[in-house]
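On clarity, I found the account of how folds are encoded harder to follow than it need be. Since the whole study asks how a given chain folds, the encoding of that fold should be made plain. For illustration, here is how one protein appears when written out as sequence plus structure tokens:
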Amino acid sequence: MLCHLESGIRRFAAQLKAVGARANREARSFRTPERAEEPLDVELRRLVEDIYGPAVPDLPGLDVGRAYWGAKSAFPYGGDVVDVFRYGNGFTLISVIDISGHGIRSAKHAGLTKHALRAYASQGYDALGAIRALNRLCIENCRFEGETEFFASAFLAIVDPERHSMQYVSAGHEAACLVRGEGRRFLDATGPILGLLDDDRAFRAETLALEPEDIIAAVTDGFTEARDEQREFLGTSALAGIIERNRNRSAEEQAKAIVLHAFAYAGPRLSDDVAAVVLRVT
């Protein structure tokens, strides 16, 4: 069954690649240097918006919010994915993925990874199994399509139906934290970057016991690597501080506060997209 799923995912990626190539050809036909910043055509914008997905619906016992800030504009276009998916057995999947590169190529891979993780989870994979399968898909898809590289850092968490625990795998992704009461805990990487090492043993999972009012936040490295005028990195510790200052706000408002803080910190020096997801146990 997974072969069929991965085949469908590859077909989706091929369709996205074809649309991107056509859009680029059309863009070259009418854009001049002074018009280079004009919006993408309507069809391509809709496709990229579909990868990002609609607002997160209400979930039992959880408040989940996402936010995205593009380095060039607030339009969600690029290789960052912040996905939330509640599937049939009541489990909730939360993923933050940062794809290498920029533009339509990264958007194509963003769609591939998002829907691959949803497919693996809906077939009963836990967080560890899903990340291992995605790592294999990244490697095999790169070989099949002749890509020179397809790497991604990923934070994947699966919350059980009763909100008692959360299993997570952090593949080369260290910008995640748990805020509980007056304490904070940073969730370190539990494996290498995806697409880099073809070895299931390189990845491991961790499990957190969850309590009411716990807040878990994860961001892409556009946040941690934002620089101020003195070229100082914003860093990971700032993430927990923003959550602590905004803990009484909704998850969506907290996520927006995270990306806006990165933009305010770096201003025009912001060179990478910033994506954030926040989960509150209510």
